[in-house]
């Protein structure tokens, strides 16, 4: 693989940023990997785990000398970060990200990057419900999809470099319009997370209304665990995703509510054949995920 960086800076050394740092170091894709973050304990762990070589709290210091800078912080922080340190970028430096929302964020980032540097949007569709670099792994991205979101302004060589980076991480790399990305991921990722969080909150209310004092969750089996695993994800990250993809997400929640209401009506009416038809349709669609 031809991709190689003199210095890479990872802004936000959590699960995704830390795992990418492990890839960069273990495959020799960067001479030096610098972590930028707020929590010293987490950054020390990142050094111990081999995700970064050193760390700084001042992002300006971290990006100076870097020819790759990866934004791995909540998407709502991008503007603040870029306004803070974009002027410190080296000529030819590539700034990329790992955010789950693109859309207007990509154009915003492009507008904040000086002409001597380049921005390439990227979204590795890989993760766990656990957060922090301690949950990271150099194998996290193997077999996962990574979506790049170029625009007409995207430098072709920078795009190719980021493609090679994610291919080196073991990902299948695709390209997609930033706004189409938000529609697609709103349906298959953002909506399921909202549903999982809401289901857990509903169970709390159900417990308080029907069986107060009983530890309802102690009786949960694998069905609830499988359905709500993603509700253990970072509320901070998902708050920002909900806000930045709100229009798509509201549309999709409305569609989901309509299907839930249909099933509710069938149950209320005691319509066994109707219930079975709805469930069978959902079962057939779910089986497509296994093919």
Structure characterization notes:
- This protein is of the alpha/beta class and 291 residues long.
- It has 2 domains: 5-177, Rossmann fold (3-Layer(aba) Sandwich), CATH 3.40.50.720; 180-290, 6-phosphogluconate dehydrogenase C-terminal like domain (6-phosphogluconate dehydrogenase C-terminal fold, Orthogonal Bundle), CATH 1.10.3660.
- It has 11 helices and 9 strands.
- It has helices at 15-26, 40-48, 59-63, 78-85, 104-112, 156-168, 178-210, 222-228, 235-244, 246-268, 272-287, and strands at 5-11, 30-36, 54-56, 68-71, 94-97, 118-120, 122-124, 145-148, 172-175.
- It has a 6-stranded parallel β-sheet, with helices on both faces. The chain has a 3-stranded mixed β-sheet with strand order 7-8-9, with helices on one face.
- Helix 4 (78-85) packs parallel to helix 5 (104-112) and helix 7 (178-210) crosses helix 10 (246-268).
- The longest helix is centred in the middle third of the chain and has 33 residues, at 178-210.
- The model has no long low-confidence stretch (mean pLDDT 94).
Termini separation comes to 31 Å
State the fourth-level CATH superfamily of the largest domain: NAD(P)-binding Rossmann-like Domain
Q: What's the quaternary structure here?
A: single chain
- The ordered string of helix (H) and strand (E) elements is EHEHEHEHEHEEEHEHHHHH
The DSSP helix count reads 11
CATH class type of the largest domain: Alpha Beta
The rough form would be described as elongated
Tell me the radius of gyration: 21 Å
Quickly count the domains. Answer: 2
Structural class: alpha/beta
Q: Major sheet: order of its strands?
A: 3-2-1-4-5-6
Low-confidence runs (pLDDT<50, min 5 residues)?
Answer: none
Say what the CATH topology of the largest domain is. Rossmann fold
Question: Beta-strand level of the residues, as a percent range?
Answer: 5-15%
What would CATH call the architecture of the largest domain?
3-Layer(aba) Sandwich
How many strands appear in the DSSP assignment?
Answer: 9
Largest sheet: 6 strands, parallel
Please tell me the overall pLDDT: 94
Q: State the share of residues found in helices, binned by percent.
A: 40-55%
């Amino acid at each position: 693989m031809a991709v190689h960086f003199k210095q890479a800076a990872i802004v936000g050394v959590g699960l995704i940023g830390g795992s990418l740092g492990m890839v960069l170091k273990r495959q020799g894709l960067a001479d030096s990997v610098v972590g930028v973050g707020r929590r010293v304990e987490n950054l020390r762990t990142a050094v111990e785990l081999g995700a970064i070589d050193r760390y700084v709290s001042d992002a300006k210091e971290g990006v100076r000398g870097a020819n790759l800078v990866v934004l791995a912080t909540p998407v709502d922080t991008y503007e603040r970060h870029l306004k803070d340190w974009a002027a410190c970028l080296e000529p030819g430096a590539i700034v990329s990200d790992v955010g789950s929302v693109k859309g207007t964020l990509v154009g915003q980032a492009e507008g904040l990057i000086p002409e001597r540097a380049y921005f390439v949007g990227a979204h590795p569709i890989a993760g766990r419900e656990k957060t922090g670099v301690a949950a990271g792994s150099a194998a996290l991205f193997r077999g996962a999809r990574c979506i790049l979101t170029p625009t007409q302004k995207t430098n072709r060589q920078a795009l190719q470099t980021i493609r090679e980076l994610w291919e080196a991480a073991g990902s299948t790399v695709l390209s997609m319009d930033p706004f189409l990305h938000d529609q697609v991921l709103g349906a298959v990722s953002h909506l399921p997370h909202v549903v999982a969080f809401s289901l857990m909150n509903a169970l709390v209310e159900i417990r308080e209304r029907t069986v107060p004092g009983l530890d309802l969750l102690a009786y949960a089996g694998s069905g609830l665990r499988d359905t709500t695993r993603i509700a253990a994800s970072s509320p901070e990250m998902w708050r920002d995703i909900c806000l930045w993809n709100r229009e798509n997400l509201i549309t999709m929640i409305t569609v989901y509510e309509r299907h839930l209401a249909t099933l509710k009506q069938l149950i209320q009416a005691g319509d066994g054949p109707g219930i079975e038809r709805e469930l069978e349709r959902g079962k057939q669609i779910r089986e497509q995920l296994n093919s």
